[in-house]
Amino acid sequence: MPSALPDGEPVPDDGALPASALAGAADRPLGFYLHVPYCATRCGYCDFNTYTATELRGTGGVLASRDNYAEMLVDEVRLARKVLGDDPRPVRTVFVGGGTPTLLDAGDLVRMLSAVRDEFGLAEDAEVTTEANPESVDPAYLAALREGGFNRISFGMQSARQHVLKVLDRTHTPGRPEACVAEARAAGFEHVNLDLIYGTPGESDDDWRASLDAVLGAGPDHVSAYALIVEEGTQLARRIRRGEVPMTDDDVHADRYLIADEILSGAGFAWYEVSNWATSEAGRCLHNELYWRGADWWGAGPGAHSHVGGVRWWNVKHPGAYAGALAEGRSPGAGREVLSEEDRRVERILLELRLREGAPLSLLREQGLAASRRALSDGLLDAAPYEEGRAVLTLRGRLLADAVVRDLVD
């Protein structure tokens, strides 16, 4: 969730949606994203809407406090119930992200989940995930989450090498994420993810292989691996600009991706989205698939984004402003946009092409179809699914996914 918010039309004080957004809602999955914007320290590469205690000091007092944050989230979940009306859908997925959600008491996360269950109900096979910092949980905390209804957990590992973690300003010690996987399994979590970042300045191929080996040794059923993006305004961007650390180039990113796919595939992981691998269909992150497939989700919390029936909106960024709006009985929405049919077509191409199942060729216009034939000839699209009417990236196509998408959209 980037910290910058787009422009858009105002959100009504009651958060009401156009009737068109609710039409046919019963046929679409519904998920909830619950944003916890607090971090113990700020990582040098992070551009998300997060805050440390120091950054919040004097900017909202009790309104911005972690102590009553769960109640703020509960208030927005209740607002969602009013806005969505008699929506009969049980919630298919809940994802608690941040920030570091596990800086809150486990009871607070369970209380937030309980609000979703009480207001909407959860599907019988609902996926309920929280992100976690390895240093912010212990066996008792994980057991409390599992008992409270969480069944999936995602640990931020980034790297197994201390010098790489130092460049990223990550504070956990090498080996702790792997220990967390074992603790989560002992607590009853069937689905566990480890997040990795590749391309950090100073990271070598051997460092990256060591991180992947450590992941496999830990035994998660899901791995996310993302190329480091140096965002303007971050501490890491300033360090690179000053020449303190080198910038990693795209060729290195490509090499690291190939290493990841080779090692993970050899260990029984299958890619299902360009940056995500799972050991089984059940191990795939269903919540993220809601995003990639344009389903409905409500994002609660400062800066959180939502989408229902072609209407996208986003909340005010600052926890103090967010709390103030809810205290006054107003929607915390900062702006929204109603997507046109063309907007939705383009977004389907942008997102679905990144999936293993690919995107239907029927989404493409004449120029996009011509581009798809060139991509097929260049080995960027898989021939077999293409014959069946779908554009599916090859391994080489995944390396150039952004460029392929741009060509097909045009």
UniProtKB/TrEMBL annotation:
CDD domains on file: Radical_SAM (cd01335)
Main location (coarse class): cytoplasm
Radical SAM core domain location: 24-270
UniProt cross-references to InterPro entries, sorted A to Z: Coproporphyrinogen-III_oxidase, Elp3/MiaA/NifB-like_rSAM, HemW-like, rSAM, rSAM_horseshoe, rSAM_sf
Annotated compartments: Cytoplasm
Domain of life according to the entry: Bacteria
Keyword terms: 4Fe-4S, Chaperone, Cytoplasm, Heme, Iron, Iron-sulfur, Metal-binding, S-adenosyl-L-methionine
Any Pfam family matching the protein: Radical_SAM
Family: Belongs to the anaerobic coproporphyrinogen-III oxidase family. HemW subfamily.
Function: Probably acts as a heme chaperone, transferring heme to an unknown acceptor. Binds one molecule of heme per monomer, possibly covalently. Binds 1 [4Fe-4S] cluster. The cluster is coordinated with 3 cysteines and an exchangeable S-adenosyl-L-methionine.
Name of the featured protein: Heme chaperone HemW
Organism (species): Streptomyces coeruleofuscus
Lineage, top ranks: Bacteria, Bacillati, Actinomycetota, Actinomycetes, Kitasatosporales
